[in-house]
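Retro notes (design track)

What went well: tokenization of the new backbones is finally stable.
What didn't: we kept losing track of which sequence belonged to which structure.
Fix going forward: every design gets posted as structure first, then sequence, in one message. First example under the new rule, 246 residues:
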């Protein structure tokens, strides 16, 4: 296997050509680059490397099969921009498998997601209403994200129901301040309609000790017609916000 010196003039010249290629592809298809620059840099370097080694810009996220050019052609290796990305991945997912090419809509959504992640984990500021609403659409939340959402809820930016799915004894020992309902997993089917009746269209966040029981409850609730249920992972043990006994 040929080894490429990334600091060589040859590689740097090919990398510059690769960026020109990326820009040309984006203009041709109406795509944009991923808002995560680390993704773009990694893919571009992989494309440049493959071009120098194989003479073609094979997708760097996949193995290149075949020793000779004839074998590589017969193996139908992905060449960027590859057919699966053009016909399926980008239209359906908003981005190609490698991630460098995205629809403008996906890139905007991902940029917002990255901003929210920075805000909640670095505690640089509170969430805006739009950011809080977007975060509530996530399937899984961590402790910092729930803490930020509870703050936004106090400020009247969003509304959701926080549900503890542990047993009564565990709830008494410690629960998250702001918990609205207790629906023990052992009594789930008997309690869920009683405690959460009329909330099937509203955002609900469930939690337990480690995120396992609440994950099961999350999927059971979806099966019962609850439209969006978020799960706290890894549960109360990963939550550093305010808790209380009793």
């Amino acid at each position: 296997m040929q080894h490429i010196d990334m600091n060589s003039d040859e590689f740097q010249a090919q990398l510059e050509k690769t960026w020109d290629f990326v820009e040309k592809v984006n203009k041709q298809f109406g795509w944009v680059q991923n808002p995560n620059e680390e993704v773009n840099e990694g893919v571009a370097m992989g494309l440049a490397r493959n071009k120098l080694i194989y003479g073609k810009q094979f997708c760097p996220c996949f193995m290149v099969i075949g020793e000779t050019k004839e074998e590589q052609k017969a193996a139908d290796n992905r060449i960027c921009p590859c057919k699966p990305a053009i016909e399926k991945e980008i239209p359906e997912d908003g981005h190609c498998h490698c991630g460098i090419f995205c629809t403008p809509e996906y890139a905007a959504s991902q940029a917002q997601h990255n901003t929210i992640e920075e805000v909640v984990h670095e505690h640089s500021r509170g969430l805006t209403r739009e950011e809080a609403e977007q975060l509530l659409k996530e399937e899984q939340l961590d402790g910092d994200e729930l803490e930020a959402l509870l703050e936004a809820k106090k400020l009247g930016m969003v509304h959701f129901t926080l549900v503890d799915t542990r047993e009564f004894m565990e709830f008494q020992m410690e629960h998250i301040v702001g918990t609205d309902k207790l629906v023990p997993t052992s009594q789930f089917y008997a309690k869920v309609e009683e405690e959460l009746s009329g909330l099937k269209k509203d955002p609900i966040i469930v939690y337990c000790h480690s995120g396992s029981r609440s994950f099961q409850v999350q999927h059971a609730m979806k099966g019962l017609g609850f439209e969006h249920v978020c799960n706290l992972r890894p549960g109360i043990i990963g939550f550093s916000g305010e808790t209380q006994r009793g």
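Added context from the reviewer: The chain has a mean pLDDT of 95.
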